[in-house]
Each structure stands twice: as C-alpha cells, then as structure tokens.
Amino acid sequence: MSQAHAPPPGWERPKISSSVLDHIGVTPLVRINKMARDYDCEILAKCEFFNAGGSVKDRIGKRMILEAEKSGRIKPGDTLIEPTSGNTGIGLAITALIRGYRMIITLPEKMSTEKMNMLKALGAEIIRTPTEAAWDSPESHIGVAKQLHAQIPHSHILDQYENPSNPMAHYDGTAEEILYQCDGKVDMVVVGVGTGGTITGIARKLKEKLGSSVTVVGVDPKGSILAVPDKLNDEKRLESYLVEGIGYDFIPAVLDRSLVDEWVKTDDAESLKMSRRLIKEEGLLCGGSSGAAMHACLQVARRLGAGKRAVVILPDATRNYMTKFLDDEYMVAHQLEPRSLLSTAASLLHQPPTTTKEAAEWWASKTVIDLNLPSPITVTPTMACSEAAEIMREHGIDQLPVVSDIAGVLGVITLGHLSAKILQKQASPNTPCAKLMFTQFAQVPLSTRLSEFSHIFERDAFCIVTTPMRHLDSSPNGGRAKWHEKHVIVGVCTQVDLLKFVMDGSDDATLGQNDGRKPTQEPAQRIERGNAMDCAQLSQYQAHPFRGGVTACTGVDPRRCASGESLGACARAPS
Ligand SMILES: Cc1ncc(COP(=O)(O)O)c(C=O)c1O
After folding, report:
1. What pairs with residue 215 in β-bridges?
2. I need a labelling partner for 517 at 20 to 30 A (CA). Which of 47, 426, 482, 539 fits?
3. What is the DSSP track for 336-376?
C-alpha cells in the first residue's frame, strides 16, 4: 500500500552548492521502457552513476569520512588508506580532497586504467596489487593497505568491509530515497553485491518499513562465493571474471546475508551485453555491474504481476569502462560477442566490412600454424623475475609465458611491467614471476585463421598460441584414472611476426614466384631457432599433424630440454 514518506536528507538543494559533496545522493529513479515492454510489472532503475564521483560508492566515501571526523578518529592532515576496486577510492578521494586528507589507494591490477587515472587526477596515490592474490595474502590490496598503515604515522584504514558507515549510508540515504521516490510502493529490489553495504543498508530499511512484502534479490557473479546456498557458487567457483565491483572470495563483515531473500548468479557475457543494451535502448550510461543487476532483474521480475514494481540499482558509470566493454574490439577479443559485431559496425558506416576485404588477401585463409612461430621460451612461476628479465634480454623478446607442469599456461610476464614494478620499488629482483604475471592475455588455438587473428593486435601487443593436451591421471586410491586437459603453449606471436609473414608472402606474390602462396617453411629449420622447448612441448609439437618430419630435427638440433636433460630424458617427457 502507498504511504507518504518524508523527503530524504538533501532532497531540497540550494541554488548554489557549498561544495561538490552536496551532489552525492538524491539520484534519479528512471523508468525502464523498451527493455520492460513485455513485462506486466514496472521496472525502475536507481541511477547511482549520477553521483558526483560517478558511483554509489561516493555515498560511503563521504559518510565514512564525516563519521570518523565526528567521532574524533581522524582530523584533516591525516592519511587515509583504502583497499578498493576503484569506486570507493574515487568516493573517498573526493571527500578527502575537500576536507584536507592525504589519500592512498591500493588497487587490484584488474581494475580499469580509467579508474586509476581518475584517482590520480583526484590527487590520490595509487599502489597496484596482483588481482589473483588471495584476499588474506600480504600481497593483496587488503594486505598491502595493512602494511602501509603499520608504517605511516597518523594513517587510518576506514575499511569499507567492516565500517558500519558503509551500510548506514544506504540505510539513511539510498533506501530513504527509494521509499520517497516510490511513495513506499516497492515490491522487489535487485542489488549487485560487493562489500554488501548497499544491499544490507537498503534491505534493512525496506524490510523495517515494508515488512516481508518486499523481496530483496542479491546479484553475485559466477566466480564469487557470496550467494546462498553455497552450492549456487559451484559453477566457475573462484574463477576470475571481468565484471568489476561485485563479488568476493570472502564474506565481508558488513554483508548481512540473512536480509537477502534470493540470489542470482550472473556471467560476464550476459552482464556486459546487458550494460550495452541499457546504454543503447534506455540511454543509461552505466557500467558493467549494472548489466549484471539488470540481467538478474529481468529474470526475477518476470514473475511480478501487473501493478507490481521492481527497483534495480545501477551502481556506476560507463566512464570507467570506455576501453573495456564499451569497445567492440574488447567484446570480441574476450569472446563476449562474435567477430561479426565488428563487421556490422563497419557496414553502418558504409564501409566495406573488414572481413570481406581481408577475405581477398592471400593470407586470410591461412592459419596460425602457417606462421611457423619460433618455439616458445617459457619460465616457471617460482623463477626470480631478474632471471626472467635476463632471458628476455638475451633473446631480444619482450614477454615470457609462465607455465606450470600441472596447469599449463598460467600467465605472461612482460618486460614493460616488470621494469615498471622494479623502478617503482614494488618488486625486487627476487620477486617470483607468479607475482608479476598478467593472467588475462590474448590466447588462440593453432587453427585460428589469420583473417581473425590479425584483429588481436588492434588491442594486444602479443598473443599466446596454445594447443590442448589431454592426459590420464591415475587415481591415488586405485580408482579409475581421470582425463585432464591443459593448454600447452606452442608459440608467442607479436604483430611483427604476422607482418613479416604477410610481407614476405606479398613480395613473393608480386614477383610472381609462387602465385601468391607462401610455401610452408620446413619445420625443422624453424625449430632450430629456439632451444628452450621442453620434452613435453617438443613431443606435443612433433605430434601435431602439420609437423610431419619434425622428428628428424631432434637429430639435427643439439638442443637440450629446458630442464637441462637431453631431449626425451626429462621427467616431463610424456611416456
Ligand atoms: C561498481 C560497483 N560498485 C559498488 C557496488 C555495490 O557494492 P557494495 O556491495 O560494496 O555496496 C556495486 C554493486 O553492484 C558495483 O557494481
């Protein structure tokens, strides 16, 4: 039943604001039109990207600082340190600069460059930490923040994971606004969950005011473990995902899961495609987790009948993702959309689709196998990064795949990243490669056609070429052996390798030497160029149907396995 609700704090705004902090909160509630066309219920979006700093986290940044000042815990001139995935940092940095605090942010590598640059522009100091570090390890953004806190006098971690001001900002602010804007008529609220501050604050207030008539739906990405019951988290458990701001590998203290009636798990493709739809169909310039929340909302709101109302929270702005999901190339490179997306965009501009142009090229139908890439040099996750740098220097290469016996390709270490970390004193020569490697990089199978492959270099400096390898693992208890599959690396390709292949072939074509068809190089010649393939990789390479005759090269090639054994003798050689 509708009931009158008092205007929330800050609803009446003066003609002239005393600072930008007055523009945190009181965000618009916008009706979803096209996307909800065939729904009986009404769907309303709470657009948190209208906050001064562009996200829902501005609310807690302001609240945590003002409350800490009020209690005497902090005073202007102190240092604030916060481990954050970005938006909380921006929210805190805005309030910190207005109130006069030094701000240090520890930020996982996965978070967008846009967020990092924004934080820098706001005067915050940034320390980036490995995305794959477990939350309780000393290298994680949380671990590094604690370390700095111990070292810097008059420093404070306001700690959004534990600070009651986090849910309270939503209990007193976001929830009151929703109640006022809806005249108390809300049947369902759908909220993405990170620290849980947003859902906890909103749910607590709505349940107090509306009782059990309101259904609270939590949205958790696959890979995170916040959803209840825990078996919901089994699919892709603890695997990495691209959507930023939601999900964790631990349960934050401010998240009260007893207030959540129902959980929906979401994946990257459906979330990011939905964000693009929100922009295109509703004109709402929101971020990736907004797509996750909307995707979940469209599922659960289906069961609401006429006259019912669902509110979905859109937490942040597209501004953070201009080079990410907003970029067609990004969507294709991460296999979230088919390559045809790019040709469609081209045809809209009345340009001949790239694929058609390329199809006419002699190299377009060739595959990565034809590039005859040099055999790869790889390093282990425990190798010291100084040793990896020396290998790169010696071989004149800029990147090295990090490979383990059991899992195959784990990541890639690059010279640029390594030297930046050493120069900024964020790594020492003894730091193991695992700590400095990127875990997200372009990766293709050998069979990829060059017409498709060539687009990778529009985004990425290099690409790892792999081939799947299956092996049987005998069970330790004498049970049935199990098949395992891993991706074995067979090459690293840069734009120069592709360009050289195309130019060499084009020269031959121009001279009429081979009718435009580049003859396939003798694999044995090629294999002599590299000498760090281990036995497992070599045998994989030899076993490939296109590598006929390579076995002969073991005779010509005096190489030894990377482990130091003679070829065929090392423990990694498959029996
Ligand atoms: C980008 C972003 N920031 C913050 C949040 C809200 O997170 P929290 O649970 O920490 O309040 C979300 C939730 O969807 C989000 O997507």
Report:
1. 188
2. 539
3. SS-THHHHHHHHHTTPPPHHHHHHTSTTTT-BGGGG-PPPP
Q: For 268-285, how does the pLDDT look when each residue is reduced to its tens digit (9 = 90+)?
A: 999 999 999 999 999 999
Task: For residue 320, give the ligand 1 atom closest to its CA.
Answer: 1
Query: Which residue from 269, 175, 157 is spatially nearest to 214, judged by alpha carbons?
Result: 175
Which residues are paired to 265 by β-bridges? Answer: 220
Last residue of a domain, one of 483, 506, 521: 521
213 φ/ψ angles, rounded to the nearest 5 degrees:
-70, -15
Tokens 């939503």, residue located? 170
Residue with CA at minimum distance from ligand 1 atom 3: 245
Q: The tokens of 551 are what?
A: 């076995």
What are the tens digits of pLDDT across the range 41-77?
A: 999 999 999 999 999 999 999 999 999 999 999 999 9
- Annotated catalytic residues are 57
Last residue of a domain, one of 137, 157, 177: 157
Q: In this structure, what are the phi and psi dihedrals at residue 110, rounded to the nearest 5 degrees?
A: -60, -30
Pairing of strands 309-314, 188-192: parallel
Domain containing 378 — which CATH number? 3.10.580.10
Place of tokens 């190798």: 383
In a domain, residue 336? The reply is no
Is the minimum distance from the CB of 218 to ligand 1 under 6 angstroms? no
The answer to whether the bond into 229 is cis (omega within 30° of 0) is yes
What is the torsion angle, in degrees rounded to the nearest 10, for the CA atoms of residue 157, residue 139, residue 463 and residue 559? 170
Asked whether residue 112 falls in the same domain as residue 71, the answer is yes
Q: For residue 542, what are its two tokens?
A: 């030899």
Work out the widest C-alpha separation in the chain, in whole angstroms. Answer: 87
User: Is the C-beta atom of 195 inside 6 A of ligand 1?
Assistant: yes
Distance between Cα 194 and ligand 1 center (Å): 5
**Same-domain check for residues 369 and 443:** yes
| 3 state SS of 38 | coil
* Tokens read off for 71: 């209690």
Give yes or no for residue 32 having a pLDDT over 90. yes
Q: Are residues 369 and 517 in the same domain?
A: yes
Which token pair is 288?
Answer: 């990736």
Encoded tokens for 186: 């809300």
Residue 174, ligand 1, Cβ within 6 A? no
355-394 pLDDT, tens digit per residue, is 445 556 788 888 899 998 888 899 999 999 999 999 998 8
The predicted-structure confidence for 1-18, as pLDDT tens digits, reads as follows 456 788 888 888 899 999
Residues 479/481/484/488 CA torsion (nearest 10 deg): 140
Q: Tell me the pTM.
A: 0.68
